[in-house]
UniProtKB/TrEMBL annotation:
Keywords: Signal. Residues 23-253 form the Solute-binding protein family 3/N-terminal domain. The lineage of its organism: Bacteria, Pseudomonadati, Pseudomonadota, Betaproteobacteria, Burkholderiales. This is Transporter substrate-binding domain-containing protein. It comes from Duganella flavida. Transmembrane segments: none annotated. Residues 1-20 form the signal peptide. InterPro entries: Solute-binding_3/MltF_N.
Length: 253
């Protein structure tokens, strides 16, 4: 009996840090999308989520996998969440956005744009409402939400590339009329070796907030934890520490 009591007292005397943290598994796209994230866990998205971990004493288990598979895993409740995900109505089937029916953009991770790239010398154009001088398909990355915007204009599209550089090479080779890319991906290409053969049009196709979305199972079973995570995302994004990081990268958040 004395031995049993001693054990109980030892457990009770353990520091709070020894108590197991809540682990939340998050998947993200298996490629670099600067400055937001890298396959190896760098970038502003990870900086934000690390600060969230500290704020609410949660531990994130990050999984880098191809984007369409990441979203499929979320729908199957095989992961607890995915980031960074823009809003599309049909994505409500995959998981939960902060705010539920009324999306709370204040709880976004960041804002980014989609822009149009063309081959240098091409006459393809975009005036903010309409595309013109298209002589082929507009390419975009597999599973990316900009595809819905392009299809809504009844345009020929090509969704056959997973990476931004693949898309750019198809464009340069004349297999596409233009390419719709995330603003940060386009900026990376325009700083790289392919830039002399490309032109970026000045008017964005669309600007979107990007979210951490959580699985239906997590929100149903642990609604308080889900609310804590989303609130912490907003608090961290507005914190001086994170703002300093974002400003250093010259991006909106």
């Amino acid at each position: 009996m004395t031995h049993f009591c001693t054990c109980i007292m030892l457990v009770l005397s353990l520091p709070a840090a020894a108590v197991a943290k809540e682990t939340v598994t998050l998947c993200f796209e298996a490629q670099d999308v600067l400055p937001w994230r890298t396959e190896k866990g760098g970038g502003l998205n990870f900086e934000l989520l690390k600060l969230v971990e500290q704020r609410i004493d949660v531990q994130f288990d990050f999984q880098s996998i191809p984007w369409k598979r990441c979203l499929a895993q979320l729908k199957a409740n095989a992961v607890d969440g995915a980031f960074a995900v823009s809003y599309k109505p049909d994505r409500r089937e995959l998981g939960e956005y902060p705010g539920g029916e009324n999306i709370d953009t204040g709880k976004r991770m960041h804002i980014d744009t989609y822009v149009l790239l063309r081959r240098k010398g091409s006459k393809v154009d975009w005036d903010g409402k309409h595309f013109s001088n298209l002589d082929g398909a507009i390419g975009f990355q597999l599973g990316y939400s900009v595809g819905d915007v392009l299809r809504a204009q009844n345009l020929e599209v090509d969704e056959g590339s997973q990476r931004a550089d693949e898309l750019a090479r198809k464009l340069i080779a004349g297999r596409l009329a233009a390419a719709a890319l995330g603003g940060s991906d386009a900026a990376g290409l325009m700083r790289g070796p392919l830039a002399p053969q490309l032109e970026q049009l000045p008017i964005p196709i669309i600007e979107k907030p990007y979210f951490l979305i959580l699985s239906h199972a997590l929100v149903a079973s642990k609604p308080q934890l889900a609310a804590q995570i989303w609130s912490a995302v907003e608090q961290v994004r507005n914190s001086p520490a994170y703002k300093k990081l974002a400003q250093a990268e010259g991006v909106r958040h």
